[in-house]
Amino acid sequence: MKVVALLSGGKDSCFAMMRCIDYGHQIVALANLIPLDDSVDELDSYMYQTAGHQIIVSYAECMGLPLFRRRIHGSTREHSVNYRMTPGDEVEDMYALLHEVKRQIPSVNAVSSGAIASDYQRMRVESVCSRLGLVSLAFLWKQDQITLLEEMIRRDIVAVTVKVAAIGLNPSEHLGRELKDLKLHLLKLNEKYGIHVCGEGGEYETLTLDCPLFHKARIFIDKYKGILDNPNSTIASVGVLHPLSFHLEQKDASYSTSHLPAVFEVEGNPTFTQASSSKPLDSEFDPDKGEQARNFRISSTGKNLLSIGCWIQNSSKTSNGLQEDLAAVLRQIELRLGAEGFGWVNVLYIHLYISDMKQFALANEVYVKYITSAECHFGVPSRSTIELPLVKRGLGGGYVEVLVARKSEKKKVLHVQSISCWAPSCIGPYSQATQYKGVLYMAGQLGLDPPTMNLRVGGPTAELEQALQNSEAVAKCFNTSIFTSTFLFVIYCSARLTSSEKIQVQEKLKSSFDSSDSPAFLYVLASDLPKGASVEVKPVIYAPEVEEETEELDVGKLRTPLENMFGKLQIDKTCYQLCNIKDKLLSCIVSITNTEASKICSQQDDSAFDFQCGSKKHMTIIATFCASIVAKTLCENGFSWNDLVILRFYYPTCLLLSADLMDCVFSEAFLDLARDDESIKFGKEPLFNLVPVIGSGQSAHMDDLITCELLASKL
Q1: Could you report the per-residue pLDDT of 482-515, keeping only the tens digit for each?
Q2: What is each CA distance from 412 to 231, 350, 542, in whole angstroms?
């Protein structure tokens, strides 16, 4: 990509440019924001470093690149971490600056910044990039600061301190010192006081005088004066270096100073625009078109935390097209949310099932018309997307499930849109993870190499290893781990995998977890996955917030003994995985294999059970058994139907019973359950979702007749 680098002059923004080049990008322009008054060294801003700004103009000559500069007219007006466009805010000066860069250099499609740990800064850069249709590159994001410091020095970044403001940093001694000379001292201060060795806590700021990107010249400061802000402080004095004179020393003898790169002063008021949206849909497209003719099916579970599913029941097995079907389904969910007094802001998670992964971009065009940052001001939902044989089963082109919280302000969302070395970016209105009342719902993770956003080479197990690394990076942001706190782990596998590759995936996954506290595993065989991936993982993690609980989770010790679970409901214990976390969270996977189905049916019917053909009579018996297992699981673990959050039944497309018949049979089974027990009250809508898949199960064989996935919560 062609990159404009946001430049403060500090070591971080310069090293971020070097990382861009490492990953094959091209720096084509520099952009810098400076105070209104040249005599002012530093602004009171959490957003911009301005110390040493008097020297930045020379970076154009040092690098041989055009420099765009703008004076900061705004101030901090929007104080929340999630930035929303605010006239008069200092962020709008960045927008005006980058808008002008893009106007003059239309080929620019990305922005580099040196953010390491500040969500405040990163999210503001991402907001501006989103509005301008640019990609944010933040290759230093979440990197270990000691490693970064050492690498900057090793790669010949010559930077001096232009501000010090921390205990152990004395302006008279440490101001104007080179970074390499301060390294050992900074490490000692980190060990003694916990300071950030890269200065991410405002401990110090630097000005780069030379680096490998300075091909043409380097900078020498000839004279400066130190300015003390609070010289009488008993904790830490703040000192700022004010340059009085400097000069450049040419590196390239052939470089002519008569043809210096342009320096553009960007003036005028910012032009306010909202975040750019996707391309407009076809003018003939209408989400309400033919809505009366469609047979929508809505499912709903729970009370305080609930799941709503919607799909199109179409026995003719035709589709109006993925875009039109998906828009109609999203519209129905939107109407249902509104009827319940909710909006998209209440949605924590979205399962997006589509009929054709080749139309993933078209599906996203529809998606972003409904789910936007503006609609979800507490953070956009996390999401997983897979391709399923929906049309073949008469379910239209799009099938959507949303997880909804009544108290949207309680959710915590991690949404990093920048491409970095940390974890795959989520460019658009879907986030990496959402935490709500002690549970972390993580977006489906592919085996993407974060800085390149390409699938890791080496086959399915290599992709799985990368996906686990990505998931762990996300989990660490919530002070938890997928390897110790996951209680439900879903693995989507592509139908392209061979039998041996599936087994390798399972062996790799099992070896990654301690067998004594491994989560319940669910494998789902999908028609296709985004980017043609082999695997996609989706961990659900017990992650209580600090103020709630700090006790470490031991999943193995929290299981309900299986021998207490059955009674007359006979099923092989190997087909049942259950995790009860402190009587607050309950997850369960039940595998009805062909063998188990035959046993279940033989208790009530003597005729042979045919796995592939099946029969309404046999499926009725199995559906009744499934409903009873769900009821018994909830009851014996002290959960009610109102606590039910997710209830899915996966069934293979090789089963010849129609989707209509499956829906009818399972609905009747739960109605019979309610008729037999007056304490059970069901609404008119089913509380389960029937999901057609290529295969599913608790092992990589994925040969179940029916797989039940249950999640209940009292949190």
Answers
A1: 999 999 999 999 999 999 999 999 999 999 998 7
A2: 41, 16, 14
Lookup: tokens for 418: 């920048």
How many CB atoms lie under 10 A from the CB of residue 531? 14
8 A C-beta contact, residue 703 and residue 536: no
Contact 161, 206 (CB under 8 A): yes
Rounded Cα distance, 666 and 670, in Å: 6
DSSP string, 352-419: EEES-GGGHHHHHHHHHHHS-TTT-TT-PPEEEEEE--TGGGT--SEEEEEEEES-GGG-EEE---SB
Residue linked to tokens 């910012």: 270
| Identity of the amino acid at 437 | K
- What is the spatial distance between Cα 351 and Cα 322, in angstroms, rounded to a whole number? 16
Sign of the C-alpha dihedral computed for residues 638, 641, 643 and 648 taken in this order = positive
Which 3-state string (H, E, C) describes 432-445?
CEEEECCEEEECCE
Write out pLDDT tens, residues 410-419: 899 999 999 9
For residue 457, what are the contacts with CB-CB under 8 A and spacing of at least 6?
none
Alpha helix positions (H), 178-309: 179-193
Please write the tens of the pLDDT for every residue from 540-561. 999 987 655 444 444 443 333 3
User: How far is residue 524 from each of residues 327, 527, 693, measured CA to CA in Å?
Assistant: 25, 10, 7
Give CA–CA dist 663/661, Å, rounded.
5
As a whole number of Å, the CA-based R_g of the chain is 29
Compute φ and ψ for 448, nearest 5 degrees.
-90, 135
Are the C-beta atoms of residues 522 and 698 closer than 8 Å to each other? yes
Q: Please give the structure tokens belonging to residue 12.
A: 């971080």
Q: CA 547 → CA 334, 437, 550, 636, distances in Å?
A: 33, 11, 8, 30
Helix 360-370 × helix 322-339 angle, to 10°: 30
Predicted structure pTM score: 0.90
Q: What's the pLDDT score for residue 606?
A: 64
DSSP 337: H
pLDDT at 304: 79
Residues of the chain with pLDDT > 70: what percent?
Answer: 90
Three-class secondary structure of residue 130 per DSSP = helix
